[in-house]
């Protein structure tokens, strides 16, 4: 009878929704480093503001709650500190969260543990004030270059320091060399090469698709399922212009966007991840290494073609 079939279809809809909520679909958290801006060429305070507005507009359009990791030294542009603070405010007003990426972007390969610890504390002053004004937490730390330590002892000591100061480490599982594409893009913008910019944006999208496939393979081989992934990109001109397309691509690939705290609730993020040393790969690679598991792939392919050639010409100095 119609009434019964109506009830049954409601029931199946409810099941479909709960299966999705339980993780039936693929999930990804978006994290954006080097807020307010990473640029290979000169960038004005006005452009920095517009860049952040574009990132936030794309995130809001797709209902994605991102975490922006701040380098406070980049906010201290003489005569323009208020604009920098307004950018932090804009992130929080848009419903995003801010994290600490340290003052000066010091990595745990080139800098001493003591210097990096000092940079964590020096780099939280304006962000903490902004977060408190919005009743928002300041709880995540993203290691510059995702370098978590030269040795296990150093990694553990630093993580204890971070925990003491209320920080959780923000891992990442998906990267697609966005800084390589972004550097080329910055130079082509400076040269007003619009067809070149478009070509880089197209290559960048293709590289995202190829890279995501690799990290899905790693997750399947290591965990036997799709972990909630964590994407790492940077606050660059490239991403300001293409984040809408990136998020559309991820949706096409079957992903829904989840906040970082939801992704981190997955038990995979409790797995041991060894100290990175100099190179900071995906946490999927770190987990595999800690378990002595051999995977068929260990990260995204290298950028090829036009972008790789341009990168050699424009960015390797
Ligand atoms: Zn960074």
UniProtKB/TrEMBL annotation:
InterPro entries: Glyco_hydro/deAcase_b/a-brl, NODB_dom, Polysacc_deacetylase_ArnD
Keyword ATP-binding carried by entry: no
Keywords: Hydrolase, Metal-binding, Signal
Domain of life of the source: Bacteria
Residue ranges occupied by any NodB homology domain in the UniProt entry: 24-149
PROSITE patterns, per database record: PROKAR_LIPOPROTEIN
Signal peptide residue numbers: 1-21
One Pfam entry name: Polysacc_deac_1
Keyword Signal: yes
PANTHER family in the record: CHITIN DEACETYLASE 1-RELATED (PTHR10587:SF133), GLYCOSYL TRANSFERASE-RELATED (PTHR10587)
Protein name: Polysaccharide deacetylase family protein
Native species: Pelomonas candidula
Organism phylogeny: Bacteria, Pseudomonadati, Pseudomonadota, Betaproteobacteria, Burkholderiales
């Amino acid at each position: 009878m119609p009434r019964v079939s109506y009830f049954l279809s409601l029931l199946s809809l409810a099941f479909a929704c709960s299966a999705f909520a339980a993780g039936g679909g693929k999930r990804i958290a978006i994290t954006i480093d080097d807020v307010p801006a990473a640029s290979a060429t000169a960038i004005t305070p006005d452009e920095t503001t517009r860049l952040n507005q574009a990132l936030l507009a794309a995130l809001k359009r797709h209902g994605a709650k991102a975490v922006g990791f701040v380098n406070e030294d980049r906010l201290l542009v003489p005569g323009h500190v208020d604009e920098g603070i307004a950018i932090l405010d804009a992130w929080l007003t848009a419903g995003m969260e801010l994290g600490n990426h340290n003052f000066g972007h010091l990595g745990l390969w080139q800098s001493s543990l003591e210097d990096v610890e000092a940079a964590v504390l020096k780099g939280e002053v304006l962000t903490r004030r902004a977060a408190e004004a919005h009743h928002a937490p300041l709880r995540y730390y993203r290691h510059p270059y995702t370098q978590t330590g030269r040795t296990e002892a150093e990694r553990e000591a630093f993580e204890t320091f971070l925990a003491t100061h209320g920080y959780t480490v923000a891992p990442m599982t998906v990267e697609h060399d966005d800084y390589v594409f972004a550097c080329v893009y910055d130079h082509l913008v400076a040269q007003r090469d619009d067809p070149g910019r478009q070509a880089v944006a197209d290559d960048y999208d293709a590289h995202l698709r190829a890279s995501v496939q690799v990290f899905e393979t790693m997750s399947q081989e290591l965990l036997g399922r799709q972990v909630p992934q964590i994407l790492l990109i940077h606050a660059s001109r490239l991403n300001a212009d293409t984040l809408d397309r990136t998020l559309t691509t991820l949706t096409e690939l079957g992903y829904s966007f989840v906040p970082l705290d939801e992704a981190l609730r997955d038990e995979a993020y409790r797995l041991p991840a060894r100290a990175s040393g100099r190179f900071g790969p995906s946490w999927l690679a770190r987990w595999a290494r800690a378990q002595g598991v051999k995977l068929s792939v260990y990260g995204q392919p290298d950028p090829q073609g036009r972008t790789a050639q341009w990168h050699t010409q424009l960015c390797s100095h």
